[in-house]
Backbone:
């Protein structure tokens, strides 16, 4: 059914009867959002032009901003951003770029960093005031950390794996062969970032040598060649075997009780439909991840992440592959649509309704990330299916036979 014919049906339903030919013709002229004034290019009668200055390279990637669906209404804070427009900081061991609330004001709960490490490239020893959650998007890396009981943890991660470091736990990252690694970090504070981390090089450089000598129990002269500036990302040799590194740091304190990594891409999906999958990692299966929950969603061409909302946290999205269109609904009413491509970031405030369509010809893959310990979701179709049908029919003027077809089990990705 076309959008136009659908809107005619909605107009007829609101009027309480079947439209006459005259009324139908009138509806075609004023077609748009059901609120006044009507919105959408279809209301212009074909004179929808923009003769002003243009940036086609940008505009062509955001068609829903240029020509929004007629059902969009009102406005809301911009919920689209992208690593593709974030400047890179480049050093000889790799690079990073970030999107925090400084550049993306709506994103108050999560800040994102996209980082690349060469083979042997090291993100120096450091720690954060926020928790660090990460997903590997390319290659291989070695991570190290130490928990608060003095128990070391070292592991190798590959594409599709996650790691999580609670606030304050020291750690390092190094790219492995053959081509290093690329990953996305999510901090559980929208104002956090890569450029305000606590670096071991800077603390050592700004501590009197005699204090260093006392602290480590070695002669003062031992520190005469320390770097006097931060290293941040630097090139080093490839490390030895994982087993050798683990043996080198073995201690009587033992190992942490739970791993700081999770093999997300290897897990059986929580939901599989004919149109896609959903894989969830939160504190129920990734035990150490107490402040960040996530879902990896795959939507096949023609499919859609169903109409839903999340009651316990804002949603920060990272688009891995494919093309998408998302509409976000708020009270008012407000409904705004944006388009997403690989490297883009979306953000949906807690409890706001939204859906995500695959608008491309390949699989759409994206991450939903939340500042919470548990993944929670409410499905619109599921809610209406499990509400007394007389109430739903009276509210939406629907045939009870139609309501009976609504899914009683949350579909996640539709059509199934």
Residues:
């Amino acid at each position: 059914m076309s959008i136009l014919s659908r809107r005619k049906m909605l107009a007829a339903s609101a009027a309480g009867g079947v439209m006459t030919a005259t009324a139908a013709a009138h509806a075609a002229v004023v077609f748009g959002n059901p609120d006044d004034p009507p919105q959408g290019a279809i209301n212009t009668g074909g004179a929808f032009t923009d003769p002003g200055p243009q940036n086609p390279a940008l505009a062509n990637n955001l068609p829903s901003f240029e020509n929004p669906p007629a059902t969009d209404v009102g406005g809301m804070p911009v919920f689209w951003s992208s690593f593709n427009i974030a400047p890179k900081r480049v050093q000889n061991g790799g690079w990073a770029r970030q999107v925090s609330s400084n550049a993306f004001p709506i994103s108050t709960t999560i800040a994102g960093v996209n980082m690349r490490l060469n083979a042997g490239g090291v993100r120096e020893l450091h720690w954060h005031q926020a928790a660090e959650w990460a997903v590997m998007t390319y290659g291989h890396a070695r991570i190290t950390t130490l928990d608060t009981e003095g128990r070391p943890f070292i592991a190798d991660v590959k594409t599709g794996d996650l790691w999580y470091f609670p606030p304050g736990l020291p750690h390092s990252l190094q790219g492995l062969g053959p081509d290093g690694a690329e990953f996305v970090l999510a901090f559980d504070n929208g104002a956090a970032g890569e450029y305000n981390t606590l670096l071991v090089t800077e603390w050592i450089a700004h501590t009197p040598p005699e204090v260093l000598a006392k602290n480590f129990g070695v002669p003062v002269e031992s520190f005469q060649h320390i770097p006097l500036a931060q290293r941040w990302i630097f090139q080093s040799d490839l490390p030895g075997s994982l087993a050798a590194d683990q043996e080198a740091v073995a201690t009587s304190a033992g190992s942490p009780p739970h791993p700081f990594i999770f093999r997300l891409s290897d897990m059986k999906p929580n939901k599989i439909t004919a149109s896609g999958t959903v894989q969830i990692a939160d504190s129920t299966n990734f035990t150490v991840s107490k402040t960040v929950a996530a879902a990896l969603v795959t939507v096949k061409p023609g499919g859609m992440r169903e109409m839903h909302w999340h009651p316990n946290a804002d949603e920060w999205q990272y688009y891995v592959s494919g093309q998408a269109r998302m509409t976000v609904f708020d009270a008012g009413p407000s409904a705004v649509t944006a388009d997403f491509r690989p490297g883009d970031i979306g953000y949906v405030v807690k409890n706001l309704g939204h859906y995500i369509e695959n608008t491309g010809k390949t699989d759409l893959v994206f991450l939903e990330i939340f500042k919470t310990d548990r993944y929670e979701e409410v499905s619109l179709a599921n809610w209406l299916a499990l509400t007394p049908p007389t109430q739903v029919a009276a509210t939406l003027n629907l045939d009870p036979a139609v309501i009976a077809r609504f899914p009683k089990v949350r579909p996640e990705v539709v059509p199934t």
